[in-house]
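2024-03-11 09:14:02 INFO queue: dequeued item Chromate transporter, len=177
2024-03-11 09:14:02 INFO validating residues
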Amino acid sequence: MGTLFLFFLRLGFVSFGGGYALIPMIEQESARQGWMTQDAFLNAVTVAGMSPGPIAVNLGSIVGYRTNGIAGAIVAVAGLILPSILMTAALLLLIYRLRKQLWIDRLFYGLQPVVTALILFAVYRLGIGRLGHGAWGGQLLFGLVIIGLGWVMLVRYRMHPILILIFSAIAGAAFLT
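2024-03-11 09:14:37 INFO prediction written
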């Protein structure tokens, strides 16, 4: 459990960009440590993404639970959120004192491309990179249609995101299995 805690603690210290940016790192460590198979990890990402709350915390709790039960889930989540709590408190004090400095704005602006690249890499690894040769076109096209319909449902019809998630899950289960 110490390895689990230290991994998520380290991950918590470098978790810029939100949970989706952490998925490739969690996937790599889960495979290296033998915590989860690739299929189990993909299922865990799906469940974590559809569950309420941050995906990284949800995914950490699933990985922790699969390795050491409830205690593992608690240890993984504690390791993941402890750095955020400490760093948020420290940065809040620092930013409050330096809030009128121009370099602070430039620093946050400079982090945006890195976060975008990490999220796009996660999309590639979990989506496009996993498609089989024969199903590549059909699954990709279906995924793009679902994304488009979800966007229309959200923006045009102002549907609740939970309804869009339910629609996406049912459509995926009906047409991709």
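2024-03-11 09:14:37 INFO annotate: Residues 133-177 form one domain.
2024-03-11 09:14:38 INFO item closed
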